[in-house]
């Protein structure tokens, strides 16, 4: 009979694009050894571990453990405090995790299967996505490896946005700073980096499309 661990291992091999060590650190499961023991069936999969695997793999708990999923649904009916977390794992609001290049590619109408998915705690607007930070232009607040959830809503001054400069091969993630032209009265904007080694982008110097606003920041600090 196929066990939860066997099904989990099959889903992991199919969906995960990162190492067991990085997966364990990123989603709070533990060391590479711990992840490996769970995948090989040397440790039983707990409900807590199931929720973390479901988040990291962008799947439902049912995909690898119908029994744990049923238990989670029952637990949710008795415990208000965990209802949101459990429900999001069983019926995930999945959004794709994309690189800046993949975002640019999608804006041109090319939608390949993303390398990964993540879950959100609430329903997102259509077109929302998770952007993986790959550079240092927003350090020290955002570092490479972090994920920001982008929702296609109107930006506000001081907020962080994902944007696509005309002709660029990748989307950028920067701070939105609107301004009004004193002559024309037209609203323009600058995109500001936190790291002053990078340039400010001006909407007056080329078309820049605002793709959405950051609504959540997931910081992943490597253990030393």
TrEMBL record:
Q: What is this protein called?
A: HTH cro/C1-type domain-containing protein
Q: Which PROSITE patterns match?
A: HTH_CROC1
HTH cro/C1-type domain residues: 8-64
The molecular function terms of the Gene Ontology recorded here are: DNA binding
Tell me which Gene3D superfamilies the record gives. lambda repressor-like DNA-binding domains, Umud Fragment, subunit A
Q: Which domain of life is it from?
A: Bacteria
| Source organism (scientific name) | Mesosutterella multiformis
